[in-house]
Amino acid sequence: MAQHQDFKKPTFELSMLLYDTRYRSTSFQVIALILFFSLIWWLVNNTMSNLAITGKDIDFSFLVHESNYDINQRLLEYDSRSSHGRAAVLGVLNTLVLSAIGCVTATILGVFVGIARLSKNWIVARIMTVHIEIFRNVPLLLWILLIMSMVAHSFPVPKHFRGADPIATMKLFDSVALTNRGFYIPEPLFSNGFGDMGFFSNSFYISIDLIVILAILIGSIWASGKIKARAKRIQEETGIRPTTWYLRLGVIFIPTILLLVYLGFYLGYPELKGFNFKGGIHLRNSLIALWIALSLYTSAFIAEIVRSGILAVSKGQTEAAGALGIKPNVIMALVILPQALKVIVPPLISNYLNLTKNSSLAIAVGYMDLTGTLMGITLNQTGRELETLLLGMSIYLTISLLISAVINWYNRRNDMVER
Amino acid sequence: MKKSLFIGALLALGMAATTSGASTLEEVKARGTLNCGTSTGVAGFSLPDANNVYQGFDVAICRGIAAAVLGDPMAVEFVPTTGKTRFTALSSGEVDVLSRTTTWTFSRDVDLKMDFHGVNYYDGQGFMVPRSLGVTSAKDLDGATVCIQVGTTTELNLADFFRVNGITYEPVPTEKSSESRSLYQAEACDVYTTDASGLASARSTFADPSAHVILPEIVSKEPLGPVTRHGDNQWGDIVRWTLNALISAEELGITQANVAEMAAAPTNNPEINRMLGTEGNLGPMLGLDKDWAHRVIAAEGNYGEIFEKYLGVNTQIGLERGLNAQWTDGGLLYSPPFR
Ligand SMILES: N[C@@H](CCC(=O)N[C@@H](CS)C(=O)NCC(=O)O)C(=O)O
C-alpha cells in the first residue's frame, strides 16, 4: 500500500533510476543492453573499417573455385580440382565421423568406469579413480599428441611387412595390419552390388546397397517390435507370455543375411603394394590418436556423470530389489540404471557436444576435419579469414544446436512418462 | 564519476580502432624494437642458438632492417610463425615484417594484400626420401605417403605434380616443419617435400644426413623474400632497399670488414658513396639517416657473407650459390642501382 502512495508522488529525480529499488534493476538492464549493443556495433564497425583499410571485402565466391589441394581422408569423391565448398563438406563429414565414433567409445568406456568406480572391490575402485583423475586433469591436446607420437614411433613401418622373413606380420588371420601410418582393417564389399546413386546432378553418390541394407534392417526391427507388442498383449490377456526370442532374432537377422548373400558380400583385405597397404579400410594414425584421446578424455567425465546418476537413485531401491531376491548385477541392469538414466542422459549429451567441439583440435595431428579444410587450408590459401571463420562457426553452431534439440526432445519425452 | 570512467573506456576503445593508421616506421621507432615474423625453427634460416639468440639467413634480413631503422641489429623481437599463421600475424600488425622462407606468388601479392620486396633466395620445391628406399625420381613415388606443411605453396605444387604425372599419394599435413621432420624420421611418411633449401636444412639436422637423398626433380619456382602489409609504401621501400643494399654491397665489394673504412670518407666509386651516405642524401629520402646502409652491412656483412655464414658449402646445410649468385657470376641476384 505504501508503494501505491509512492507511485503518486509527483517528483521524479534522475538519481532515483539508480537508488530507487523499483527502477534500479530496469536501469541496469537498459545500461547493460546499451553497452552490449555498443560493443557489437564497435566490433562490427572496427572489423569493417579494418577490412576497408586493407582493401578487403567480404566475398564467399571462393567456395566455388578450385581448391587445388588434396585431402587424405575422403568420404566423398574429391580431388584437387574440386571446389573449396566441397572441401568444406568433406571436412564436416570427417568431423562428424570422428565425433560419432568418439561418442560411442567414450560412452561404453565411461559407463564401465563409472560403475566400476562404485565397486566394493577396493583395487578396482581405486584404479577407476586414477583413470578419471588422469584423463580429466591433463589437457586433451597433450593426450592427442602423445598418442599420435606413440602410434607413429612404436608401430612397424609398412615395409617391415615385406620379405620372406618379415619383421612385422599382419594380425587376426592376416586380416589386420597395424602400422605407424594407421591401422588397415578388412572392408565389406559386394561382388553383385547395385552400384551407386547420384544426388544433386551427381555431385555426390550414395551406395544403393547401403540404402537397401538399412531399409531391410529398419523393417526387420519394426517387425520384431510388432512381435514384442503382440507377446505383451497376449501376456496381459492370458497371463502367459509366449516365447518369441527365436522369432524376433530370426526376423532381425535372416532377411539381412539373405540380402548380403544375394549381394555377394565378401571382405576386402588390406595388402602391401608399393609404399603402402592397399585395400581394406585405412584408419589413419591421426584418426586413431584423436579417437583414443577424445574417448579416454570424455570417458572420464561420463564416468563421473554415470556415478552421480547411480548415486542419485535411492539406496532403498537396491535394498528393495535385494529383498525380492534379485542378484546384484541384475539389480544394476534392471533397477538402478534405468532410473539413473534420467539423471545421466542430459549431461551425457552435453558431453557429446563437448567432444564434437573438442574434435576441432584435429589439426594438431593433421586430421582433415572442418578446422583442417575450411578453417585451415582454405583459409590460408584464399586469405578469406572472416568468411571461413564465420562459416565454420555457423557449421559448429548448427551441429551443436541439433544435438541440443535432441536433449530437449529427450527431456520432454521423459517428463511425460514420469509417474 | 563512474559515468565518466565509462565514457573514457569507450573512447579508449574507439581510439584503439583509429590509431592503426600510423606509419610502421614511426611505430617501430616509438617501440624501439622491430617485430619480425620468422619460422618456428629452420636450421640456417631462423633458429635460436644455445644462448637463445636467433641466427640465420632470414634472421639476418631483420637484423639489417633493425640496424637501418633503429641503429641496433639486436633490437629485434622475433615472433615464430607457422605457414598457417604468418600472413595473419602480418596483416593483424603483430609483426612489422615477415622474413620466413615465404614464396612470392600472385595471389599472396594481389589478393592477400601483401607486399613482396624482392627475393633473398631463389628456390624450388624438391623431394627427400631415405636412401634405403631406392627411389631415384619423383615420378616413381606412386602411392607414397608424403609429409607437408599446411598453408604453403608446397601442398598446392604437390597436388599439381602428382596430378600432372598421373600418380597418387597420401598427404600427411602438419603445421610445423619440426612435426614433418619427426614423422619423416619415424618413417610415418616415405617422402618429405618442401623448398629444396628447407630439405637441405632438414637433412643437416638428421643423425645421419647421408642416409637421405634429395631427388633431382625441382617441381616449382619458389622465390623467397621479405614481406610487409599492403599500403605502407615508405616501410616497404625501407625493407626493399635494405635487401638491395646487402646484394649491392656484395657486387661492389663492400664487406663487414671494410665497410667502416669505406664509409669514413668518399671513395672513388660514386655508387658506393651514395649508398654509404658520403655523397648525396639517399638515406633521408627513405626517412632514415645517411649512415643507414653502413649499419646494415656492418650488422652481418653483405649478402654473400650472410649466405656463406648460414647456408654456404662450409656450413652443415652446404648449399651452393647456384641461382643465388650475382648476375655477374651467372646467377639471378640483380639489385637495382643506388642512384
Ligand atoms: N615457400 C613455401 C613453403 C615455406 C615453408 O613452409 N617452409 C618450411 C620449410 S623450409 C618452413 O619454413 N617451416 C618452418 C615452420 O614450420 O615454422 C611457402 O611460402 O609457402
How helix-rich are the residues of chain A, as a percent range?
55-70%
Q: How are helices and strands ordered from N to C of chain A?
A: HHHHHHEEEEEHHEEEEHHHHH
Number of domains of chain B: 2
**What strand order characterises the main sheet of chain B?**
10-9-11-8-12
Q: How many individual β-strands of chain A?
A: 9
How many helices of chain A? 13
CATH fold category name of the domain at 62-153 and 290-413 in chain A: MetI-like fold
Tell me, what's the shape of chain A? globular
- Small-molecule binders: glutathione
CATH architecture of the largest domain in chain B: 3-Layer(aba) Sandwich
Into which percent range does the helicity of residues of chain B fall? 25-40%
Please, how many helices of chain B?
A: 14
CATH topology of the largest domain in chain B: D-Maltodextrin-Binding Protein, domain 2
Structural class of chain A: mainly alpha
Beta fraction of chain A:
5-15%
Separation, N- and C-terminal Cα atoms of chain B: 60 Å
- Molecular shape of chain B: globular
Structure, described:
The complex is a heterodimer of chains A (419) and B (339). Chain A is mainly α. Chain A has a domain at 62-153 and 290-413: Orthogonal Bundle (MetI-like fold), CATH 1.10.3720. Chain A has helices spanning 2-8, 16-19, 21-53, 84-117, 122-137, 140-154, 208-238, 245-263, 285-312, 315-323, 328-358, 373-382, 385-417; strands spanning 177-179, 182-185, 187-190, 196-199, 204-207, 265-268, 271-273, 276-278, 281-284. In chain A, the strands form four sheets. Chain A has a three-stranded antiparallel sheet with strand order 1-2-9. In chain A, a hairpin with a 2-residue loop joins β1 (177-179) and β2. In chain A, α7 (208-238) packs antiparallel against α8 (245-263). The radius of gyration of chain A is 29 Å and the shape is globular. With 339 residues, chain B is α/β, with parallel strands linked by helices. Chain B has two domains: 24-122 and 224-329, D-Maltodextrin-Binding Protein, domain 2 (3-Layer(aba) Sandwich); 125-220, D-Maltodextrin-Binding Protein, domain 2 (3-Layer(aba) Sandwich), CATH 3.40.190. Chain B has 14 helices and 14 strands. In chain B, the strands form five sheets. Chain B has a five-stranded mixed sheet, with helices on both faces. Chain B is globular and about 60 Å long. Chain B starts with a helix and ends in a 29-residue tail after the last helix. Chains A and B meet through α3, α6 and α12 of A and α1, α4, α6, β10 and α7 of B.
